[in-house]
Structure formats: C-alpha cells, structure tokens
Design a protein that fits this description.
With 219 residues, the chain is of the alpha+beta class. The protein has 5 helices and 8 strands.
C-alpha cells in the first residue's frame, strides 16, 4: 500500500495514539534523557510494504511539539519530505513489524529492565514463572513459565536488527536489549501498552524477589 493511499484520518489517529502514550509514559519517568521510542503502524500490512509513525530522534518526550513524530516505510526511511530523523532504533521496529504483523511497538528504558536484562544477559533470556501478570500475554496456565529473549546491546543497530527474527517468540510479545530496554508490541496501541506494563511489573517483581531471596537467612 502506498503511503499516499493512507487516509489523513488514519495518520492523525496514529499520531494521537502516540501522543497519549508518550505523555503517560513520560509521567512515569520511562524516557530518561531523550531515550525510548514509540511507533504505531498505519495502513494495510504487507511484509514487503508497510508504514508506521515513529517518534523523532533526539526529542524531549516530556514535551509536545509538531515535530515529535514522522512516518517511515518498511526500511525505516521517511515516507515524506522532512527534516526530522527517525529514532536510531527504527530498524528494530521494522524487523518486529515484518515478523509479527503487529500494530504498535513501544520501547522504554527503566532501571528494572536494565538491571534484570543485565543479570540474565549471559543466559540469553529472562525467566519468569508463577507471576500473575503473565496472564496479560494471554497465557493462562497455572504456574506458567515464560522466557523473555535478551539480545546483546550492540552499538551498531543493524547488527541487532538482524538478530530479531531468530529470537522472536510469537507467544511472548517482547524482547529486551541487554542493559538497555524493552521492546513490547501488540495488535494495537492499547494491547502494546498492556504488554509493556506487564513486562515492567515482571521485571520489578524479579528484581525485588532476588533481593528478598538474598536477604533470607540460610536454614
């Protein structure tokens, strides 16, 4: 689908969703500095031809300006003339959209997702079991166990993007870059937000459980 064929209403809707989510996450302190990025897909999806709105690089996400976002194509290139630059990690969004067909991707940096991804980095995944918020991923088994993929935090973003297809698990809507941050996605902005909040709860839970286990007197 050509970008010119996407309706103005859909483009404006995507930008409004991004603004609402950005404002909420900024209030939670999930965008330290100018970190993090958010995107919402627009138009029909095809693995070889799709578009999405994404936060522009280097912007203060606690503020709102007309230049907070831009539209890009399936290769992460601007879909229309603009002086704005897409987030440095746009290629990772491209791969997640291509592999999952999702409708929105949210990436934030928090202390908990940094610490936990570093703690389990050598294992290549963050293990979580018997945590109530696992149900947010539509996993309802009693004492459910999941493994959240952890990728190395290379300085070269294309090197990270190449690894994404090999670790994606369609039942786990998230991947973590080691000591960097979480990417969570969903069929739409609402679902991606729900998934991200669940991951952040899980990371905080795991961190605090490690502290409690370490403080427990030996028997």
């Amino acid at each position: 689908m050509r970008f010119s064929e996407i309706t103005l209403e859909e483009k404006q809707g995507a930008l409004q969703e991004l603004r609402q989510v950005k404002e909420l996450f900024a209030q939670r302190g999930w965008f330290p500095g100018t970190s993090g990025n958010l995107s919402v897909r627009v138009g029909e999806f095809d693995r070889e031809d799709f578009h999405f709105a994404i936060t522009a690089s280097g912007k203060d996400k606690s503020a709102h300006t007309p230049e907070d976002y831009l539209f890009v194509d399936q290769n992460g290139k601007p879909a229309q003339a603009t002086a704005l630059k897409p987030s440095a990690e746009t290629l990772i969004h491209c791969e997640i959209y291509r592999e999952t067909g999702c409708g929105a991707i949210f990436h934030v940096h928090t202390v908990y997702n940094n610490l936990i991804s570093e703690y389990y980095g050598e294992e290549g995944f963050v293990p979580a079991q018997s945590i109530e918020l696992i149900k947010a991923f539509n996993i309802w088994e009693e004492d459910a166990s999941i493994a959240i993929p952890v990728l190395p935090n290379y300085a070269d973003i294309p090197s990270i993007a190449k690894l994404v297809p090999g670790v994606l698990n369609q039942t786990i809507p998230g991947i973590v870059l080691r000591n960097h941050g979480i990417y969570a996605w969903g069929k739409n902005a609402f679902e991606a937000k729900r998934h991200l909040e669940a991951f952040e709860f899980i990371f905080e839970y795991l961190y605090k459980k490690l502290l409690l286990d370490a403080a427990r007197p030996a028997k």
